[in-house]
Amino acid sequence: MGKEKLAYYGGNKTIGRSFPWPVYGEKEIQALKKVVESGVWGITSDPESSVSRFEKAFADYLGVKHAVAVVNGSVALRLSLMAAGVKPGDEIIVPPMSFIATASVVIEVNCVPVFVDIDPDTYNIDPDKIEEAITPRTKAIIPVHFAGNACAMDKIMEIAARHNLYVIEDACHAHGAEYRNRKLGSIGHTGCFSFQSSKNMCSGEGGIAVTDDDTLHEKISSLHNVGRKPGGAWYEHFNLGCNYRMTQFQAALLLIQLERLEEEVVKRDSNGLYLSELLNEIDGITPLLRAPEATKHSYHLFPFKYDRSKFNNISKKEFAELLAAEGVPCFMGYPEPIYRQPVFQKKNFFSYVIPDSVSYTDVSCPVCEEACHEKGMWITQNVFLGERKDMEMIAEAIRKIKANLQ
Ligand SMILES: Cc1ncc(COP(=O)(O)O)c(C=O)c1O
Questions:
Q1: pLDDT, tens only, 286-318
Q2: Does the pLDDT of residue 406 top 80, yes or no?
Q3: Which candidate among 165, 271, 324, 357 keeps its CA 20 to 30 Å from the CA of 260?
Q4: Residue 277 shares a structural domain with residue 241
């Protein structure tokens, strides 16, 4: 027994295989070739274009009426806020445990992100803390289905209805994940997805906003297409939109990924559950709980809590490095809650207009702070397209680290 057995210090790696992402084959290459040869690479009103077909197929998959494909997930969120009619100074409730875009898009519509702490077991927004953050200026809640694990949507929708708030689901981690057998993204007023390279469906960059609401759809659609309206002329602009359109290349790739998605969701879900069982046996490693209503988890990330006192007191950064060296794509997670990022601490908001009274220096979300600084870590989604044996090897790698830390 000794450190030299660990791959980080020159020992053998526990997992020799790699976990490729993105996954692609001949189908993707042919689809891209077809777009190239069609000569139609950007927007067209043709309902048979890749973008139109993808919007329809994704909406059908989620069980919603409308989808608007855009340049990225951030824009899907921002256009949802604009379509909801937010006004400067309105407050939007967000969790601090997310990619910065969940909150920065709020600033980009001149509104004020109000951070509500997370639940220590799921790292999703704590539904019991939402109501105390609501003021007469609150306009919307953006629940993030962190890692692909459903937020407490019944409670969130009930609070929103009582206070007349919009719910904009940040489902950027949650392609194909479910809550009571309903696809995430289809429950709020709008749902927003990202197709950035790391996501469970990806086209390099890309995003989509989905909704059942005809008016929200009309607005988002116009805003993403330079304020045009269906049937309007090319140089006729009704709203202050911009060009946020997806290309036909991205949509061609995404159509193929959508064909594979359900099978991949089932595989990740079953491997994630199995790994949770295995890791629950290791003292000092606690996989996050999935909500009982989460009928499918997309495991964009497999987050777990790390207790350094059970691992010879090494920091989570060191632990992540040791585990990565053993062949497990493992990361130490978001280093800080969003509000601790310099942009919020220093209010480097450029031309966006946020009231002078708003300050993030005193914001405190202790559960999120502990998750970022001490406990929270994750393994990435590509691993969960592996086999059950790979899950066993991950547990083995952690046991090996534990046994050889002296
Ligand atoms: C939770 C979350 N929200 C929003 C986004 C923004 O998506 P994009 O990078 O496509 O703009 C991301 C992606 O990185 C994300 O992880």
A1: 999 998 999 999 999 999 999 999 999 999 999
A2: no
A3: 324
A4: no
Q: Which of 257, 278, 306 is the last residue of a domain?
A: 257
Domain end point (choices 257, 272, 305)? 257
Contact between 208 and 70 under an 8 Å Cβ cutoff? The reply is: yes
Q: Is the CB of 371 under 6 A from ligand 1?
A: no
Distance 198 CA to ligand 1 centre (A): 10
Separation between Cα atoms, residue 380 and residue 368, nearest integer Å: 20
* C-alpha of residue 99 to centroid of ligand 1, in Å: 6
d(CA 328, CA 53): 37
Instruction: Answer yes or no: do 34 and 128 share one domain.
Output: yes
Distance between CA 209 and CA 399 in Å, rounded? 42
Claim to verify: residue 188 and residue 280 sit in the same structural domain: no
Q: Residue 303 belongs to a domain with what CATH number?
A: 3.90.1150.10
Q: How does pLDDT run across 95-123, given as a tens digit for each residue? A: 999 999 999 999 999 999 999 999 999 99
- Among 32, 60, 386, which Cα is nearest to 203's? 32
Give, using CA atoms, the residue closest to atom 16 of ligand 1: 99
Q: How far is CA 401 from the centre of its chain?
A: 30
Task: Give the pLDDT of residue 1.
Answer: 61
- CB-CB contact of 118 with 368 (8 Å): yes
Range of the domain at 300: 3-8+261-403
Q: What's the mean per-residue pLDDT of the chain?
A: 97
**236 with 336, same domain?**
no
Closest among 99, 121, 114, 107 to 173, alpha carbons compared: 99
Residue 101, ligand 1, Cβ within 6 A: yes
Test site for ligand 1: of 99, 108, 198, most ligand atoms within 8 A of the Cβ: 99
Is the minimum distance from the CB of 173 to ligand 1 under 6 angstroms? yes
Residue 17 falls within a domain, yes or no?
A: no
Indicate whether 189 belongs to any domain.
yes
pTM: 0.98
Q: Residue 368: pLDDT above 90?
A: yes
Domain count, the chain: 2
Which of the listed residues 104, 196, 197 should we mutate to test ligand 1's pocket, taking the one with most ligand atoms within 8 A of CB? 196
Q: In this structure, are 246 and 267 located in the same domain?
A: no
Distance 138 CA to ligand 1 centre (A): 23
Q: Report DSSP state, residue 129.
A: G
